[in-house]
């Protein structure tokens, strides 16, 4: 059964429809990348899955629950944003544990989760530092750590690497892939970067103007693009 199931999902802002009835099934532990040009509806779709944006039409299921009207907290989803808003006055350890503390967990229960996330992300030697004393890549890892500690069923990433320079972006891409292999979780990842999509995805979803143009493995899409838009976007040979 699909872990995340979008059925005819629509988003309207007033009279303007920006997502036009998207169907998508994401399997348990699958890494799916939504890719497409700026403005095609990637973030809007992700935010509807996260519960940060109201769904105008269609049905969203996570596991076997219809979650259309459930608040974000009840969906057991974690989202990592491009602007990793760490709390500047808190150490890495405090940043990692803060969400769990808010959720009412005891320090005894928080510590092992924070230590586990720190181990996965290689943050052990930075735990007492403030965000100002971290590099961009380290900060991004802390942001991911904050998602990991919650043990979500589904991870959502919205262009998490676009603030980083090219070299670091390459390194973080490898880390995210490793993270997925270690943590074994379902991931929906948004990017406008074709290379990022092709290297990370089990399957990629190519979007244009609020529609899904094609879904497939990177190889399928590259070798058999359904139209010239997909071919051009992915860089398939003519
Ligand atoms: P992407 O993430 O693919 O760049 P978005 O999902 O952010 O695209 O945006 C999709 C479309 O919806 C764009 O045309 C954008 O201008 C529009 N849009 C996004 N947010 C709003 C909003 N709050 N009000 C009106 N239009 C919006
Ligand atoms: Mg976006």
Q: Look at the helices and sheets and give the structural class.
A: alpha/beta
Q: Number of helical runs?
A: 8
Strand arrangement, largest sheet? 6-7-8-3-9-10
Ligands present: adenosine-5'-diphosphate, magnesium ion
Helix residue percentage? 25-40%
First-to-last CA distance: 37 Å
Q: What are the low-pLDDT stretches, counting only 5+ consecutive residues below 50?
A: none
Shape descriptor reads globular
State which percent range the strand residues make up. Answer: 25-35%
Main sheet overview: 6 strands, mixed
Number of strands: 10
Give the topology string: H per helix, E per strand: EEEHEEEHHHEHEHEEHH
What is Rg? Answer: 18 Å
Average pLDDT = 92
Chart the SSEs and their pairings.
Blueprint: E1 2-13, E2 16-27, E3 31-35, H1 42-50, E4 57-62, E5 65-66, E6 77-80, H2 92-102, H3 107-121, H4 136-148, E7 154-158, H5 166-183, E8 186-191, H6 194-200, E9 203-208, E10 211-216, H7 218-223, H8 228-234
Parallel strand pairs: 3-8, 3-9, 6-7, 7-8
Antiparallel strand pairs: 1-2, 1-4, 4-5, 9-10
Helix pairs in contact: 2-3, 2-4, 3-4
This protein binds adenosine-5'-diphosphate (ADP) and magnesium ion.
């Amino acid at each position: 059964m699909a872990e995340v199931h979008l059925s005819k999902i629509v988003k309207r802002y007033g009279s303007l429809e920006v997502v036009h009835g998207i169907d998508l099934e994401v399997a348990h532990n699958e890494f799916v990348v939504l890719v497409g040009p700026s403005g095609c509806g990637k973030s809007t779709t992700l935010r509807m899955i996260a519960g940060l944006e109201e769904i105008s039409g269609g049905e969203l299921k996570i596991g076997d629950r219809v979650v259309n009207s459930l608040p974000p907290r009840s969906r057991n989803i974690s989202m990592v944003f491009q602007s990793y808003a760490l709390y500047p006055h808190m150490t890495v350890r405090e940043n990692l544990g803060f969400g769990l503390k808010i959720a009412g967990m005891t320090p005894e229960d928080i510590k092992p989760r924070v230590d586990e996330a720190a181990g996965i992300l290689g943050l052990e030697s930075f735990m007492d530092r403030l965000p100002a004393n971290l590099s961009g890549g380290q900060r991004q890892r802390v942001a991911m750590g904050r998602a990991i500690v919650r043990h979500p069923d589904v991870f959502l990433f919205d262009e998490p690497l676009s603030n980083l320079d090219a070299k670091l972006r390459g390194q973080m891409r490898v880390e995210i892939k490793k993270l997925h292999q270690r943590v074994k979780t379902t991931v929906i990842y948004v990017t406008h970067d074709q290379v990022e999509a092709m290297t990370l995805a089990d399957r990629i979803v190519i979007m244009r103007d609020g529609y899904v143009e094609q879904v497939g493995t990177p190889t399928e899409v590259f070798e058999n693009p359904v139209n010239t838009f997909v071919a051009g976007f992915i860089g398939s040979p003519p």
